[in-house]
Amino acid sequence: MADGKELDIITAPFISNSKLEGLNFLRTPATGCFRRHFRGGLRSHLFELIQAKDLEAEQTGKVIDNIRQFPRAMPSRMLRVLRTRFDSLDQALKEIEKYRLLLEILGPDLVARSEEFIVEYQGCGQKEILLCGLQEYIKGTILDPWHLAGRDALKHFYRPNATTPCHGFIARATREIKTFVGAVRTMIHTTGHIPDLAGVGNLMLTPEGRLKLVDINNIIEIKQTASIPLDDRGYPCCDKSMEVLFILEQKILQQPISMDDPLHERFFTPERREEVKTLEQAFYKRLNKIP
Ligand SMILES: Nc1ncnc2c1ncn2[C@@H]1O[C@H](COP(=O)(O)OP(=O)(O)O)[C@@H](O)[C@H]1O
Ligand SMILES: [Mg+2]
User: Fold this and answer.
1) CATH 3.30.200 describes domain 2-60+70-136
2) What is the per-residue pLDDT across 167-183, written as a single tens digit (0 to 9) for each?
3) Which of 25, 79, 143, 228 lies at a CB distance of 3.0 to 4.6 Å from 12, suitable for a disulfide?
4) Ligand 1, from 46, 144, 202, 219: best to mutate by most atoms within 8 Å of Cβ?
5) With a threshold of 0.85, does the pTM exceed it?
6) Residues 6 or more apart in contact with residue 216 via CB below 8 angstroms
């Protein structure tokens, strides 16, 4: 089941609740357990795979330098369960194919690698198909593209640590972001798809300044229609992801806007931006109404 090369398709019932016992299509490893991750997404359920000894240290503490400390148990892996229910196996396989394309173009350094697998389960008498992934856990801070300020924007994401000084962190993160935007542009030109860069927490920076795209299951087809495409939740995800690409280029890499850039020409006209803004506001209004 490595990276979806061979698919492990398991038939098992799935109890749809937040309790971990609900994940009964997984064998919990003898030395670990799953627990819900403290950050959740709109599209995915996220669970941490924790080693039992780390959980114990978190709960009962361990004495370091004569002080009892309660270190947060670091997940060894993340389990992603996409909320989407697929109608057919083909649809789920297509999603895995898109992830493989992403990995091929961006490379494993820029993507949090995931071993994708499909689960067929019987809910209320009807068979449904779930897409899951066991993904590497990325320790770090969220690179929030929407609140970047000043020339030293990356400094705010630095957390002091023993191995990387702040200037080393900024230099490395800048290099990684340059490679990343280049690879995303290649993906756009060669495949007509863009990964979701707009969602909160989709991009992360490690303490050493490495950039990782963790949200790997929302890869958007760039439609050639004049109207602004919306995702299944009514969010203008494609346009907002393009916007993040431009933000990274301009605010972090300090690259001037090229007037010949066909992407800029198409996605960044004042009229289109205004329309995207209206659609985005409508999306948040609907979201706030959900109890
Ligand atoms: N592999 C991972 N390592 C660390 N944090 C992660 C990982 N995957 C997701 N997260 C965090 O969980 C949150 C939701 O994840 P995301 O993949 O964006 O979910 P969704 O598909 O619902 O948008 C984000 O804040 C993200 O930073
Ligand atoms: Mg996301």
Assistant:
1) yes
2) 999 999 999 999 999 99
3) 25
4) 46
5) yes
6) 99, 102, 103, 111, 112, 114, 133, 135, 195
